[in-house]
Amino acid sequence: VDLVEVRLPVPPSANRIWRVMGQRISKAGKRVPNVIKSPEYRAWQTEAGWLLQTQKPGRVAGAYDLTITLPKVRIDPDNAIKGTSDLLVKHNIIDSDKIANLITVKRDDTAETMVVTVRPAS
Fold it and tell me: Each residue's pLDDT tens digit in the chain (122 positions)?
């Protein structure tokens, strides 16, 4: 596919994706924090995943350029990248978020939702 463009809800801030819930014992027998996905993030993944699938976006194989256009919301632009990239990987839109060539995040105060555009790397 030459271009994937989808409209999604804005993800929670990257600062709110993970929560520490007590401790667990590691394989080495040491106590370590038990880190889980936050309920807010899991709810967003479910909602955004369903919306993503209804748009039948296609797939961009290999290295890619990602553009995230945010509506007028209170989120640091760079904090929208992690959740969005992870969702694209989870739903097989991209191979891996490790092979991004270019990531652009911009704001459009007239937009009503987040627009995510994925293209093969330029």
Answer: 789 999 999 998 877 777 777 787 888 888 877 777 888 989 999 999 999 999 999 999 999 999 999 999 888 888 899 999 999 999 999 999 999 999 999 999 999 999 999 999 98
Helix (H) or strand (E) holding 44: helix 39-54
Which structure tokens are listed for 44?
């967003």
Backbone angles phi, psi at 83, to 5 degrees: -60, -40
User: How far apart are alpha carbons 106 and 115 in whole angstroms?
Assistant: 10
CA distances from 102 to 24, 86, 94, 122 (A): 38, 16, 13, 9
Task: Give, as one character, the DSSP assignment of residue 99.
Answer: G
pTM of the shown model: 0.84
